[in-house]
Design brief:
362 residues; six-stranded mixed sheet; globular; alpha+beta; 30% helix; ATP binding; Lon_proteolytic; serine-type endopeptidase activity; five-stranded antiparallel sheet; 9 helices; 28% strand; 2 domains; Ribosomal Protein S5, domain 2; Pdz3 Domain; ATP-dependent peptidase activity
């Protein structure tokens, strides 16, 4: 009996430990991630940058909570978010990752375009089709199409842009059968279905939300190996690395430069989430300069949320909190970053760029 009692107690202990330390709960921990050197991630005509210094992208780590790790929220720069807050209307983590991969691909595309535009070099945009972001429940292609598919043809017709695609569909009749070709993970599929009346606009449609899917062709050829990293926030740093390589300019001058921010094709730098955690990650990896989006806050938004702060303000507060010597530099456009880097002296000198001031929104 004592032996049986011992095994029962041991089993109960294992069960308790499982529920405390391993059992997932519907919450996620957001905390400082990594600062990744871009030299081994970006190649131009098969070559990698070898100049002194680094450009680094920064990340936020997201991990599913357990009852034990739920307590991490009380640690500095560890935040707890619910599944609803993280996923929104997305059904599961797989779809979330698919969306993040799309954002990364789009970020790579925009970064290359912004860099080549700034360098005055030509490039070609190759339209691939429409990227499926979601499928409505009442769509006759529900269960066929899924997030991440690219529709390449409708009724054996190819289109030059998404506007042509939409115009063709909306000129057809509700209930009319269309044939589509679409790609998923490199494989082409075909399907047929009837068009529906879109609830939002009342127009004829397939029943999907969509965005452009295109690639950019350049000479010299640029390849960005983003790996498993997702999201759009590496855009600014990607564009700086690409620009410095295609123009053969040593912009970093031996400095370790980290940063974050989305990049538009026109060079506009946009805000991102978790910038305070990215400041922590950059500081741990020895960055001496950190580029932060200096997003302008809409007065109406500031009026409704008086405590709302720009990315730059949050980054400055985090830097002051950890007492880092890393300089936080506000960036609105790609050209802002280039101009700042062009005035840097080599790291071997004693010159230190003047700390930029907070540009508070009215």
């Amino acid at each position: 009996m004592k032996k049986i009692s011992f095994w029962i107690k041991g089993l109960l202990l294992i069960i308790v430990l499982y529920f405390i330390f391993l059992r997932p709960i519907p919450y996620y921990i957001e905390r400082p991630g990594s600062a990744e050197d871009l030299d081994p991630m970006i190649e131009v005509d098969g070559n990698y940058a070898q100049e002194p210094g680094k450009f680094m992208m920064t990340t936020v780590e997201i991990l599913q909570a357990t009852p034990f790790t739920y307590l991490f929220q009380f640690l500095p720069y560890n935040d707890i978010v619910s599944e609803a807050e993280l996923f929104g209307d997305i059904d599961d983590y797989e779809e979330y990752n698919t969306l993040q991969r799309y954002y990364m691909e789009s970020s790579v595309h925009s970064a290359v375009v912004a860099a080549f535009d700034a360098a005055g070099l030509p490039y070609n945009l190759d339209y691939k089709g429409v990227y499926v972001m979601s499928v409505t429940d009442n769509s006759n292609f529900a269960g066929v199409l899924q997030m991440g598919d690219t529709i390449t043809e409708v009724d054996n017709l190819k289109f030059k842009n998404t506007e042509e695609f939409i115009d063709y569909i909306k000129d057809l009749e509700v209930g009319q059968t269309v044939s589509i070709k679409y790609e998923r993970n490199g494989t082409e599929y075909k399907s047929e279905g009837d068009l529906i009346k879109l609830e939002e606009t009342g127009e004829t449609g397939i029943g999907i939300s969509l965005v452009d899917q295109s690639t950019v062709e350049t000479d010299p050829e640029v390849v960005i190996h983003s790996g498993e990293i997702g999201g759009p926030s590496a855009g600014l740093m990607y564009s700086l690395q690409v620009y410095s390589m295609i123009t053969n300019t040593n912009l970093r001058a031996g400095h370790v430069i980290a940063g974050t921010g989305t990049i538009s094709e026109d060079g506009t730098v946009g805000p991102i989430g978790g910038i305070d955690k990215k400041v922590i990650a950059a500081d741990k990896e020895g960055a001496t300069i950190f580029f932060a989006p200096d997003d302008e806050i809409d007065p109406d938004l500031k009026g409704e949320y008086p405590d709302y702060k720009s990315n730059y303000e949050i980054a400055v507060e985090a830097a002051e909190d950890i007492d880092t010597k890393m300089k936080i530099v506000p960036i609105k456009t790609f050209n802002d970053a280039i101009e700042y880097l062009e005035q840097l002296s080599p790291v071997s000198s004693r010159f230190e760029p003047e700390q930029s001031q907070v540009n508070l929104a009215a």
